[in-house]
Automatic annotation (TrEMBL):
One of its GO terms (cellular component) is cytosol. Belongs to the Nudix hydrolase family. NudC subfamily. Its EC number is 3.6.1.22. It is an enzyme of class 3 (hydrolase). Residues 254-383 form the Nudix hydrolase domain. Pfam families: NUDIX, NUDIX-like, Zn_ribbon_NUD. Its cofactor is Zn(2+); Mg(2+). It comes from Aspergillus indologenus CBS 114.80. This is NAD(+) diphosphatase. Keywords: Hydrolase, Magnesium, Metal-binding, NAD. CDD domains: NUDIX_NADH_pyrophosphatase_Nudt13.
């Protein structure tokens, strides 16, 4: 079993001494962040680069089927990275022979959409072996993501190569990990999987233009989608006009939905505000969270959410850390906030009925829960857990990290409240 420590990534440049690190403390890196890959985003439309990376013997493919990742074993969960020859029936070696512009000009609505490898980046931490992939000044193991689900409702002829690839992988004892949320990969693997899942899901949901309703085409190695101007199937009429082609926003970009999540301290900093949703297990509480709205600062969103869900009025909000959450496209922005006056601590659930309960917990009770009451949502707490005591999310959840930080208060530069 992977230890909990291996699940939590190290912050970048962990040993570096900086004035900021002395002032604000160590950076917190959350699960799904700190990918080992250098994304090299500026090379995503460089077809000679992509062609070389696609077919290099060291290249690894993260495969998802109906968003479930391919794994060697389910427990402990370890992803299986496919080689090019294992997915070659879906991705011809000639894929990048034409430029992106030529491919868009050659768009033909009669041709089924091809599988789109998504370039994720180069793992520069991989040992530099003879024959390792290099491109200009960059060296490392290329990673691509590939959706092997196959066309939904497609003809048998279109489904066949996908089924063939999947069956060959399953014949090797590999399987697709079925889980609502995958949080058991080691830190580096989790970050790569998160990027793959978010981009595959976004491509799957955006096969039609949001402006004109016609089919879109993946470009920039699956990280953008374009609405082609012409269609070989209708050379005379072309495609109806679409404003995405005439304005500066001629591409659609992957979504990232900012979400705030906050550990709230009481005015005396001796208690933490936590809430529970209707579907949480008994005695399980977590930090309050919600979406950032258009034209709203993160700090304002934190104050609004906590007031709407719990009736508590916050003063100072301090940003702490963030966590990519690829279910489907969230960025959890973690904050610690404090009430300035005990009069603002009164809880009411009457504004927005989202929470089943919200409560102030003494720090001692929270410390006990962090020691013995944490577990993944569907799992049982540890053997030392006392039935009826507070339960909290695991360290892989940013909620846990925020609660730890709030009760240690290091980041605020003030006195340390807790020894946990
Ligand atoms: Zn369009």
């Amino acid at each position: 079993m992977t230890s909990s420590d291996a699940l939590i990534p190290n912050p970048a440049h962990i040993q570096a001494e900086t004035m900021l690190a002395r002032q604000f403390g160590r950076e917190t890196a959350n699960y799904f962040s700190s990918s080992p890959l250098n994304r090299l985003s500026f090379l995503r439309s460089d077809h000679p680069f992509l062609s070389a990376a696609l077919q290099h013997p060291s290249t690894r493919f993260v495969l998802l089927k109906d968003l479930a990742p391919l794994v060697q074993t389910a427990a402990p969960a370890a992803p299986y990275y496919a080689r090019y020859d294992e997915i070659q029936p879906l991705v011809p070696a000639t894929l990048y022979d034409q430029s992106e512009e030529d491919l868009l000009n050659a768009y033909d609505s009669r041709t089924p959409a091809a599988a789109t490898p998504i370039f994720l980046g180069l793992d520069e931490t991989a040992p530099k072996r003879e024959g390792a992939f290099t491109w200009k000044s960059y060296a490392g193991t290329p990673y691509f993501a590939l959706d092997v689900t196959g066309p939904r409702g497609g003809e048998e002829e279109q489904q066949a190569p996908y089924r063939q690839v999947v069956e060959a992988l399953e014949a090797k004892g590999l399987s697709f990990l079925q889980a609502r949320v995958v949080m058991s990969f080691a830190a580096d693997q989790a970050a790569i999987y998160a990027q793959a899942r978010a981009l595959i899901d976004w491509n799957t949901r955006n096969t039609f233009c949001g402006t004109c309703g016609q089919r879109t085409v993946a470009v920039h190695s699956g990280t953008k989608r374009a609405c082609p101007a012409t269609d070989r199937a209708r050379p005379a009429a072309g495609r109806p006009a679409c404003s995405t082609r005439t304005t500066i926003s001629n591409l659609s970009f992957p979504r990232t939905d900012p979400t705030v999540i906050v550990a709230v301290l009481s005015a005396d900093a001796q208690r933490i505000l936590l809430g529970r949703g209707k579907r949480f297990p008994p005695h399980w509480y977590s930090t309050l969270a919600g979406f950032v709205e258009p034209a709203e600062s993160v700090e304002d969103a934190v104050r609004r959410e906590v007031w709407e869900e719990a009736g508590v009025t916050l003063s100072r909000v301090v940003l702490h850390s963030s966590q990519p959450w690829p279910y489907p496209a969230n960025l959890m922005i973690g904050a610690i906030a404090q009430v300035s006056d005990a009069a603002h601590e009164a809880i009411t659930l009457e504004h927005d009925p989202e929470l089943e309960d919200a409560r102030w917990f003494d720090i001692a009770e929270v410390e006990e829960a962090l020691r013995n009451g944490v577990s993944a949502l569907g799992d049982a707490p540890g053997p030392e857990y006392t039935e009826g005591a507070l339960r909290l999310p695991p360290p892989t959840a940013i909620a846990n990290q925020l609660i730890r930080a709030a009760i240690s208060i290091d980041l605020l530069g003030g006195e340390k409240n807790s020894k946990i």
